[in-house]
Amino acid sequence: IGVRLLRIASVTSLITREPIGWSVQQPERRHVVGSVIFGASWSVLGTCPGPLAAMIGEGKLSGLIVGAGLLAGVAVQPVLKRQRTVERPRVELSGAVGL
């Protein structure tokens, strides 16, 4: 709701002076997989990555586990992104039966 109100008020970002807005896209497989991993991790550990620094500062083991998972995700993301952007051969289906 807040972003919509900013957009209606024609508010611009403080740094780039671009209008506040967003683009809508259909969820892709990667969004669903990422959401499932995030949700499963959150439910198993019973903690959110938001207060990570506070958890580590308090000496909680869950903070170290969440931090390790966070760093692993950051490290793996570029590799997965490269794999997604590799050009895949296109398959011509116009000659297939029924198409």
What characteristics describe this protein?
single chain; mainly alpha; 4 helices; 0% strand; 99 residues
Which regions contain 5 or more consecutive residues with pLDDT less than 50? Answer: none
Q: Using the alpha-carbon principal axes, give the shape.
A: flat
Order of helices and strands: HHHH
Number of contiguous helices = 4
The largest sheet is: none
Sheet/helix structural class:
mainly alpha
Rounded to the nearest angstrom, the radius of gyration is: 21 Å
**Ends apart, CA distance between termini:** 44 Å
SS strand fraction: under 5%
Secondary structure topology:
Layout: H1 2-8, H2 29-45, H3 52-57, H4 61-85
Offer a concise description of the structure.
By secondary structure, this protein is an all-alpha fold. It has 4 helices and no strands.
Task: Describe the protein's architecture and organization.
By secondary structure, the protein is mainly α. The protein has helices at residues 2-8, 29-45, 52-57, 61-85. The chain has one domain (1-80). The protein is 56% helix and 0% strand.
